[in-house]
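protien #1 (seq + structre)
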Amino acid sequence: MRNYRLAAMAAALWIPGLMFAQAEAPACAGLPPGKHSLLERMTAQFGLTCEQELKIEPLLHNEESVTKPLLKFSSFSREQQQEVMLTIKLAARRQIRQYLTAEQQKGMDAEVESVSKGGGKKKSDAKAAAAPTGLGLEEELSAAIVKYAALTPEEKKSMLLKVKTAARNDTALQLTAAQSDQLDAEIRDLKK
């Protein structure tokens, strides 16, 4: 009986403490459901407010709408993929920067400088098990690049040229003559 009372007293002291600890770091109301690991990392690193999180989350979601097709695009070498990924990430950080305080911007600038010099994480060179055929992944990535508002027109043009050239040179895609001609015409237009 005495052990039961001690356990009940401990629980009475512990549960309010647990509730208080949870109340200290509430999730930002208004964020869409799901895992937001990059946003959580930025919040911890830069001390983002809930208002900032609500403005930055859609920008990170838009960034992901380009990086996902990029990671599936197997026509790039690892180095090409990393170069395009860096351009996308730097463009996203330019957009995010406007929502940061001067102090937070200093931290963001230091992170951007580190990533620009190759200090960012490197992904493994994993390729898809079956080689894709046709232009499906090229078209998906090209459409995502065109839609991505964080990129400047020059960045979009440069990236599209790289994507189309890589697809054109990828013998694993088994392009038809018509697809090859289509890519050749698009590459010529981008070089103008």
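ok now protien #2
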Amino acid sequence: MPAGRVHESAVVATPDSPTTLTRDSESAQQGSAAAPSSMRHYSKRKYIAAIASVALLLGVALLALRNAGNYLIVDNPAKSDVILVPARGLPLRYDRGIDFMRNGYGGHVIADVPAFTYFGHPVPELAQQYFAQQPDLAGKVDVCVVNLTLPESEQAAKCLEKFQPKSVLIVTGQFQTRLTLNIFSHDLPQYRWSVAPAQRRRQYPVKWWTNGVVAKTVFLEWSQLVWWELFSK
């Protein structure tokens, strides 16, 4: 070896050398440290997505509940041959049907009257007396006696036979309008149906949850509507 030259030894890393093992262990540690971090980010995103989904579902549910009363109400009166009032003895509905007739929505009112007595007086007779008090209704209101134990559409069909109309306007309670229209359109498709609520002034949206009686009515009408759609249609 030449004098003055410093001896340099080269270190060659083999697969089994400590240098290689050290680098592999460092790489493994970095990989193991990165894995939990990525898992944490994934779990966090999944948690946020779940919370957002629940919030969205709650929002939709609240919106549906808020409009539950509105959905039951259908108000689309159309000029018809006759006006049918399946009132079951409620003067408010009879009066509303008469108002529609006076405003040109129909030439005749068919007033369904239940076949029972009220304080010893037959309800059909009371209805006749009620309409007779208004002279302009002479010959324009037909009292049709119905049996409340039979389907309403079946009773209406018998009442309509006398007039043979092509179109019929129904006047009923506001929360019964959708179900009544669905039932009559399904059971008696030979007629063209429209419907209007008996109540003149209505609040939109209907705040049914603020009144116990109204809330009960909405619940019962929804129950009947769902039952008819699922089992009776």
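Strands lie at 82-85, 109-114, 117-118, 121-122, 141-146, 167-172, 192-197.
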